[in-house]
């Protein structure tokens, strides 16, 4: 059980680090992100709100009591990202990246559920 708990924390850390950074970059309106959102036709305020929501989701995943809430937030974000990339015909590598992150998130969810049901 300790091995699974350790694996879960490693996966959480590997997920939270980059997602927190990407949320922060959107929140502060980095010029490269502004160009990308403008090309898609989205307002800058929407990008900044999305960045804040991404940070909230990332931080929630750090706390076991809030982890399912954070996973739900990120599930919605990644679903939206997937469809946005499909609509705007982004390169296939972008879609693969979204699906890889979603698979990572699902692995965290499965481990979280497994550990919560087997420890009791």
TrEMBL record:
Pfam families: DoxX_2 (PF13564). It is found in: Membrane. InterPro entries: DoxX (IPR032808). The keyword Transmembrane helix applies. Keywords: Membrane, Transmembrane, Transmembrane helix. The chain crosses the membrane at residues 6-25, 46-63, 69-88, 95-115. It is a multi-pass membrane protein. The keyword Iron does not apply. GO terms for cellular component: membrane. This is DoxX family protein. It comes from Emticicia agri.
């Amino acid at each position: 059980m300790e091995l699974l708990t350790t694996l879960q924390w490693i996966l959480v850390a590997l997920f939270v680090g980059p997602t927190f950074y990407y949320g922060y970059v959107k929140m502060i309106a980095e010029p490269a992100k502004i160009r990308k959102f403008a090309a898609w036709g989205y307002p800058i305020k929407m990008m900044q709100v999305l960045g804040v929501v991404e940070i909230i989701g990332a931080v929630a995943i750090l706390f076991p009591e809030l982890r399912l809430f954070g996973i739900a937030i990120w599930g919605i974000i990644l679903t939206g990202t997937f469809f946005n990339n499909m609509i705007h015909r982004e390169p296939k590598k972008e879609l693969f990246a979204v699906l890889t992150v979603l698979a990572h998130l699902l692995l965290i969810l499965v481990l979280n559920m497994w550990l919560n049901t087997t420890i009791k």
